[in-house]
Write a structure and sequence with these properties.
Helix content: over 70%
InterPro entries: ATPase_inh_sub_z (IPR009945), ATPase_inh_sub_z_sf (IPR038293)
CATH class: Mainly Alpha
Largest sheet: none
Protein name: Aldolase
CATH topology: Major Prion Protein
CATH architecture: Orthogonal Bundle
Strand content: under 5%
Number of strands: 0
CATH superfamily: Domain of unknown function DUF1476
Structural class: mainly alpha
Organism: Sphingomonas bisphenolicum
Number of helices: 4
Distance between the termini: 34 Å
């Protein structure tokens, strides 16, 4: 019976590690997306850092990416940047690829 218990523990650990990695990749993606948006809005380096952190925090409001997209579209529109939801989604996808690549290269 210990073989099955060991195997179960190994799968649980693997699942936990995968979930943690996905969380880190998503947080990195959101930070990169915040930096991208800040550059479009012409923010200073200090404002860029604060804005990127705010984008990461915005992702905790609800499940999925809608909260982040809504924040970016609203903020960028308020700043006079002509962007729509599909444009932000495209940037989100691009930053996800970059974030994933960063984690792969770090290992």
């Amino acid at each position: 019976m210990t073989t099955f218990d060991d195997r179960e523990r190994a799968f649980e650990n693997m699942f936990a590690n995968d979930q943690e990695l996905q969380f880190r990749i998503q947080a990195r993606r959101n930070r990169l997306l915040g930096e991208w948006a800040a550059a479009k809005m012409g923010l200073t380096p200090e404002e860029t850092d604060a804005y990127a952190k705010a984008v990461v925090q915005a992702d905790f409001e609800e499940a999925g990416d809608e909260d982040v997209i809504r924040k970016l579209v609203g903020d960028m529109t308020s700043a006079g940047i002509d962007i729509d939801e599909p444009g932000v989604r495209a940037a989100l996808d691009e930053q996800a690829v970059i974030a994933r690549r960063m984690f792969i290269e770090a290992q």
